[in-house]
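Kindly review these tokens for lecture notes.

. . .
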Amino acid sequence: MDTARTVMVSETEAWLLDECIRHTAVDGGQPVGKQLLLKVFSLLGEFRDRAAQPYPPTELPMAVTEAEAWAIDYHFNAARLQRADPATIKAARDLLLKVFNVILEFQSRSEMTTGAATAKTAEDDRSRERLQEWRRLMQGDEADRPEPSGESAE
């Protein structure tokens, strides 16, 4: 049985998941989209039901399996999101960073339990490099800013 990790999801992120994930999404021949969307539908209903409360939640927890995390990564088409408004792009980036952390947690746990940290395949290395590159790109806005004058990067 696939273990899950908790991801805190905002209402905007939940709507993005609803828009991007299809119920037919599969991972390794196993359907993941339908179960993931059922979780998203539940979150959206919870946001709606609690909206009238004095202090409605800004985020709610969602359990995500490794296969679901990879499905989110796959279905969030960066080119498509680049045509979106800035608030949507920010929400997508925020959610992807959360998902990348979950994927890296699953990878680390897998390496610890199997002792495979030294026996990497080229494909595993490419996956990790891709995740790290995406993380740098998503956080690039801050990294690209020039340092204040008079201070050095050393």
